[in-house]
Design goal:
Elements lengths: L1 H21 L3 H4 L36 E4 L11 E5 L6 E2 L6 E6 L13 E6 L4 E6 L3 E9 L4 E10 L5 E10 L5 E6 L2 E6 L5 E6 L4 E7 L2 E6 L2 E3 L4 E11 L5 H10 L2 H20 L9 H16 L1 E2 L9 E2 L11 E2 H11 L4 H12 L11 E2 L18 H12 L2 H21 L11 E2 L4 H8 L12 E5 L2 E4 L1 E2 L1 H20 L3 H21 L1 E2 L4 E2 L1 E3 L5 E2 L8 H4 L5 H11 L23 H4 L7 H13 L3 H14 L13 E2 L6 E2 L5 H11 L3
Antiparallel strand pairs: 1-2, 2-3, 4-9, 5-6, 6-7, 7-8, 8-16, 9-14, 9-15, 10-11, 11-12, 12-16, 13-14, 17-18, 19-20, 21-23, 22-23, 24-27, 25-26, 27-28, 29-30
Helix pairs in contact: 1-3, 1-4, 4-5, 5-18, 6-7, 6-8, 6-18, 7-8, 8-9, 8-11, 9-11, 11-12, 16-17, 16-18
């Protein structure tokens, strides 16, 4: 698959390069409009102080397993920060700046450029990074763009600002942190070999004769021949940085690098991102047309882009990390994947499909889907102790709605059926058609993980029951799980109908109607006006109002009368309509503790989205719009430039909590704002 894409890209770039020479260079740039909303939408500035420094945000593209930053003006270097390698140890910086430019003249004048003082401009876009240094003598412009999932291009353009000719000596130096990576010279290139990863690194100066000097195992120099720059003239230096896993061909990647034109690659990336942002920005709900909502869609798109990874190691399909920022999130999770795919469906259905395939690649014969999987199981093993809530059919249905790819439905439908049946085979202790969360290893902890809401108060007194060998259930039936299963039946019916399987579609509709009645009768407490989990017998509510209470509205499993009472509590400022509305548990509950709670108070934007969508499903459009605005306004750093989208938020103060650059939060921001 990667070989085909690489060859296609080579042909495209060559044709594009030829075409651009025949036309006015400014003509295509006139079509770049929505890309501007991504300008500096995230703050990538910073220089890592150690290999483990995670204080700054990082830019990547094309699914690369490495990322970069812009230089910090206080300690500026003439290069881009990093890269940050996700090819080993769940992420380490290889260097403060792997190819740092140094300039001098024949008099060895070290004052040609003061990189800190002369840094005049830095910009980031979803397509590329750029920075400019300038004084009276010289202007140095640097741009970084990804040509593939293996290689980034860095162009340095040096312009003589003076009125006299200048002779320059230039070199690129690299000084590595101690990460297990060592420097070698091989075939006129810098080779970076790691004792902790099978990924190989290569650095080369592409377009100018040079000499490589290996100073020691952690440092090198690429010395260029002297540059004679007439007044007002410029010279370009193109450096490539490649980090490639052994399942890909370095020879083919090197061939690609040798034939590309920097401007063509950059323009390709710009047009690619322009198209993605156009799909989002031009299809917003009509009442969210303010530019601030266009900006937050650009931030969400870039958040997902930065977490995108191509296949490598155990991962046979591309997909998204929850967050590159947190070292234990360097893998794919199942219900994260369903949510990522749903968000991606609005602008990148191809990636959305592969995100689904990535998890179903690990499906067991009985239908079970693994909780999470990793590229390198010597760092962390796949987790087969539990699965996650059944939202996969919802995600496939959303993808199908966007691109009508019936072949994808044919591929996924049998797998989705098996997963749906698995819940009734392995997680229905009393075989009453109402399922429970559980585990494969018989632990309560893994069963709580299976809910996705690890420490929610409804599980405080849960116990585990054995159903069969390797299949255990909690001693309670959960409203959200059964609401998800109800929605799955409807989506399976829709997909079955699209495939011409009328009888199967009718069966799923019949099952859904039965389950809908059970949800309304068993889980709804008319006295409190809320949906709760119950004991196995369905005779006792497990009280403590949480976000699971509105999943029946999201799934359309509630009656209109029930939805009215749920809506009233959701819009109550003393309960759920906080500064960041629709958090995981009611504000007036004694156990409400957002700073120490994880799922005992913080606002998770997936749950907030389910709440908003639930309101819309029952005609409460005014309340849904009001909540959407308050969620986006109240959550610190969601709107505006610079700050990243967080894992969750304090519902009362709005403070961003836990991991930065969080994928499912970004995916649900997209869904909050988009027309279905």
């Amino acid at each position: 698959m990667d070989t085909k894409r690489t060859l296609t890209l080579i042909l495209f770039l060559l044709l594009f390069s030829c075409k651009r020479n025949e036309t006015n260079n400014t003509s295509s740039s006139n079509n770049i409009n929505h890309l501007l909303f991504s300008q500096n939408i995230l703050n990538f500035k910073g220089v890592p102080k150690t290999k483990a420094d995670r204080d700054m945000l990082m830019f990547s593209d094309n699914g690369a397993w490495f990322a970069y930053g812009l230089q910090d003006s206080e300690i500026a270097l003439a290069g881009f920060s990093g890269p940050f390698l996700m090819t080993q140890e769940n992420g380490v910086w290889i260097s403060p700046s792997l190819t740092q430019l140094e300039l001098s003249n024949d008099s060895n004048d070290s004052n040609l450029m003061d990189w800190e003082k002369d840094l005049v401009q830095q910009n980031s876009f979803s397509s590329h990074l750029e920075q400019t240094f300038e004084n009276d003598n010289l202007r140095v412009e640097q741009q970084l763009v990804f040509v593939s999932g293996h290689t980034a291009l860095q162009r340095t353009t040096i312009t003589n600002n003076s009125d006299v000719e200048i002779t320059l000596n230039s070199n690129f130096s690299g000084n590595l942190f101690a990460t297990g990576v060592q420097v070698f010279k091989e075939n006129g290139l810098i080779k970076l070999e790691s004792s902790k990863s099978d990924a190989m690194g290569y650095v080369q100066l592409r377009n100018m004769p040079n000499d490589i000097v290996i100073q020691d195992s952690l440092s090198f120099e690429i010395n260029c021949r002297s540059l004679v720059l007439p007044s007002k003239k410029s010279k370009e230096l193109i450096v490539t940085q490649t980090f490639i896993f052994p399942e890909y061909s370095w020879d083919k990647e090197r061939q690609l690098i040798s034939q590309i034109d920097f401007d063509s690659v950059l323009q390709t990336r710009k047009l690619e991102k322009e198209n993605e942002l156009t799909s989002l920005i031009e299809n917003r709900k009509a009442n969210f047309e303010n530019d601030k909502y266009a900006e937050v869609l650009a931030k969400a798109q870039l958040t997902l882009q930065n977490n995108w990874r191509i296949p490598a190691g155990e991962l046979k399909y591309q997909g998204l990390f929850p967050s590159y920022q947190y070292e234990w999130f360097h893998g794919f999770w199942s219900w994260d994947s369903w949510k990522h795919a749903a968000g991606l469906s609005y602008y990148n259905p191809s990636l959305a499909k592969d995100q689904m395939r990535a998890m179903f690649d690990f499906q067991r014969e009985d239908g079970f889907i693994v909780d999470c999987v990793y590229r390198d199981t010597t760092i962390e093993a796949h987790n087969y102790r539990d699965t996650k809530p059944p939202l996969s059919t919802w995600a496939v249905a959303k993808i199908f709605k966007k691109d009508s790819d019936i072949d994808f439905v044919k591929e996924m439908y049998p797998k989705l059926k098996k997963y749906h049946s698995w819940w009734y085979d392995k997680r229905d202790h009393d075989q009453d058609g109402i399922c429970e969360y559980g585990s494969t290893d018989g632990t309560v902890l893994a069963a709580k993980w299976e809910s996705g809401m690890d420490n929610a108060i409804r599980f405080d007194n849960s116990k585990i029951l054995k159903n069969s060998e390797g299949a255990y259930s909690l001693n309670q039936e959960s409203v959200d799980l059964n609401a998800y299963l109800y929605a799955e039946k409807l989506y399976l019916a829709m997909l079955a109908k699209a495939l011409g399987k009328t009888e199967e579609a009718n069966t799923y509709h019949t099952e859904a109607n039965t389950l809908k009645k059970s949800i309304q009768d068993q889980f709804y407490d008319a006295e409190d006006g809320w949906f709760y989990d119950t004991n196995l017998e369905g005779t006792k509510f497990i009280k403590g109002a949480g976000s699971e209470g509105w999943t029946a509205l999201w799934a359309t499993a509630a009656s209109q009368e029930q939805a009215e009472t749920i809506k009233t509590k959701m819009m109550d400022p003393n309960k759920f309509f906080t500064k960041v509305p629709f958090q995981t548990m009611a504000k007036d509950h004694p156990k409400f503790d957002p700073m120490n709670g994880y799922w005992r108070g913080p606002n998770w934007l997936d749950q907030a989205y389910f709440g908003v969508k639930g309101l819309r499903n029952y005609g409460f459009e005014e309340e849904a719009d009001k909540a959407t605005i308050q969620i986006l306004e109240g959550a610190e750093g969601v709107l505006g430039k610079g700050k990243s989208i967080r894992e969750n938020y304090h519902p009362v103060t709005g403070k961003g909590l836990e991991a930065q650059n969080f994928s499912w939060s970004a995916a649900h921001i997209i869904m909050l704002l988009m027309e279905d």
